Amino acid sequence: MLFTLLFLPAVLALDNGLAKTPPMGWLNWERYRCNTDCVKDPDNCISADLFLTMAKHIAYDGYKDVGYQYVNIDDCWMERERDDKGKLVPNPDLFPDGVDGLAKQIHALGLKIGIYEDYGTHTCGGFPGTRGHISDDVNLFAEWGIDSLKLDGCYCNVTEFPTGYPAVTKALNATGRPILFSCSWPAYIGQKDTIPYGDIADNCNLWRNFADVQDSWDSVANIINWFGDNHGNLASFAKPGAWNDPDMLIIGDYGLSEEQSKTQMAIWAIMAAPLYMSNDLRTIEPWQKEILTNQEVINVNQDAMGKQGTRVFQDPRKKYEFWMRELADGSYAVVMYRKDTSGLPRLYTATFKDLNIPDGTYRVRDLFLHRDLGTVEGKISAVLPPSGASKMFKLSPLK
Question: Global pTM?
Answer without folding.
Answer: 0.96
